[in-house]
Design a protein that fits this description.
By secondary structure, the protein is an all-alpha fold. Helices cover about 75% and strands about 0% of the residues. The chain has one domain. A two-stranded antiparallel ribbon has the order 1-2. Helix 10 packs parallel to helix 12. The protein starts with 5 loop residues before the first helix and ends with a helix.
Amino acid sequence: MNIIPLFSAVPLASAFLISLLGKRVKGFGDWLANLSAVFLTALSLFSIALVNNGPGSLVYKVGGWPPPLGICLVLDGISSFMLVTVNLIACLVMIYSISYMGRYTDKDKFYSLILLMLAGMNGVIISGDMFNLYVFLEIAAISSYSLVAFGTEQEELEASFKYMVMGTIASAFILLGIALLYARTSTLNMADISRVLAEGQPNKVIPFVSVLFLMGFGLKAALVPFHAWLPDAHPSAPAPISAMLSGVLIKTLGVYALIRIFFNVLGIRAEILSILMILGVVSMLVGVFLAIGQWDFKRLLAYHSISQVGYIFLGLGLGTPLGIAGGLFHLFNHSMFKSLLFLNSGAVDYAIGTRDLKRMGGLRERMPVTGNTSLVASMSIAGIPPFNGFWSKLIIILACLQAGHPVYAFFAVLGSILTLASFLKVQRYAFFGQLKQHLRAVVEVPLAMRAAMIAIAVICLAGGLLLLPGLRKVFLDAAAAALTSGTGYAQLVLGAQ
């Protein structure tokens, strides 16, 4: 249990040390940030073994005070699943940043901010009470506002301001929902809230709180119609931050927080599941239609984030074990291939200085690693076998059919076909075709950037192996079981005393 606080303590301490010593010791930021990320990734993988070989839920009591009297940190199947996803991407993004962020004026500030964001995301995942979930959410969000504006150009500052305004509105909805829940239950511990609600009479405040959380976390997850901030924020940020924002931040602050509260605290209801499915399908189609007409490489990817989050919510909204497993698997897969695509776009921008697809062409000849890894990621997001995106989309489609929703299954297939069309355009205009005259002197990006892209591409190729019975049981099934147990979460946490 004593390892649980390390997920937030290590990046917080590293951020402090880099801000203190980064300018005095050359290369200190690079080394400490990457060592911290590697350590957190290893710790996340170890947490899976702890959860699967233990009672299924580990509780760290801060100060020795048992829940619900004191603050508690909880590690269960869904927590360990999210920790692996977040910290694995963060580790590879840190490696990529060694070379990429060298073009910016203050790399140490970048590392401090991204480690603060990582501490906030890990804190949201392990938090066992509502107020601390909110505090960690704000740490991650405020760090991300600064990172979007890191280049300090007009575009970045404008996008960051818009993102901050929308994020603050989302946070206000969430905080109001927490306040109303506290007024109703007289406790902030999530397990205790679940227990009080289960034992008490139905109350009209709970549907209102559910709407507040749906709007607040929906904004954080960029679900349509709460998506307006994302197409500006993600393209404006440096490529490593775009990868973190789209790969894991919207999943942690939006998707994870929402499903944790709805499934394990408030108790999921059929009306909420229906809303999640409808919003998922709308996001899936609106995002891909908006993406098809884009010529800015990173803006196109940003719209596809909206679309792919729709798949995740469609699977989770089905509420069946197969649908939940498919939604979670797609969350993991999307974190991988979307992070890779944003790193690819950053590599192209690093090499040729533009994100305009019309000014590219034939880059695969001069940048083979970037071109080939981009092809892997494009086929993954389009759901082409045997890449990882195919397996998670297939599970979601089968779950729709199993649950008696063939229309939703059709829309999922249509979204995948349109996604393929969009990425065929990317491949045609950016990497294939004839090499343009002004690009003949282009060279491949530095080794650290290539290594990070190759590592994620390998995960995209091998992602289907997670469906093997042994791996699926300890990774996907354990995470899905934590959600399908519903308000049984309360007995697990309170029983850990």
